[in-house]
Design a protein that fits this description.
Number of domains: 2
Strand content: under 5%
Structural class: mainly alpha
Number of strands: 0
Radius of gyration: 28 Å
Order of helices and strands: HHH
Number of helices: 3
Mean pLDDT: 82
Shape: rod-shaped
Length: 118
């Protein structure tokens, strides 16, 4: 640990800085606990994108792509891994939904044109 006032290195058990005399907390050898932050935006975008992949695929694409990029950048926790998987599944569902919609539109156009010819 370093001194708050002058920045010099303090030894274990020191309560006063040897160089400037600044009083501080006793330095312990035990490391401080590291807290991992959960990256929530990628998970939220994955859930929203997955819902919209079934309803409105054109809205789902931006949500899922941004969620995928965020999940890849912040890999390491279980929730970002879940967001990554959900984004990939959502993109597959959105592409299939778009393809089915295009096929249905083509079939409808063929029916309309064949009916008008007869």
């Amino acid at each position: 640990m370093n001194c708050v006032r002058c920045g010099s290195l303090l030894q274990e058990g020191d309560q006063v800085c040897k160089y400037c005399g600044e009083k501080g907390e006793e330095v312990n050898a035990a490391p401080e606990a590291v807290v991992k932050k959960i990256h929530v935006p990628s998970l939220v975008l994955a859930i929203v994108g997955l819902v919209f992949a079934l309803l409105l695929p054109l809205v789902a694409y931006p949500c899922l792509i941004v969620g995928l990029v965020l999940a890849v950048k912040k890999r390491g926790t279980h929730k970002t891994m879940a967001a990554l998987v959900m984004c990939i599944i959502g993109l597959i569902v959105a592409v299939v939904n778009s393809a089915l919609g295009a096929c249905m539109a083509v079939a409808e156009l063929m029916y309309v044109f064949s009916a008008s010819i007869l």
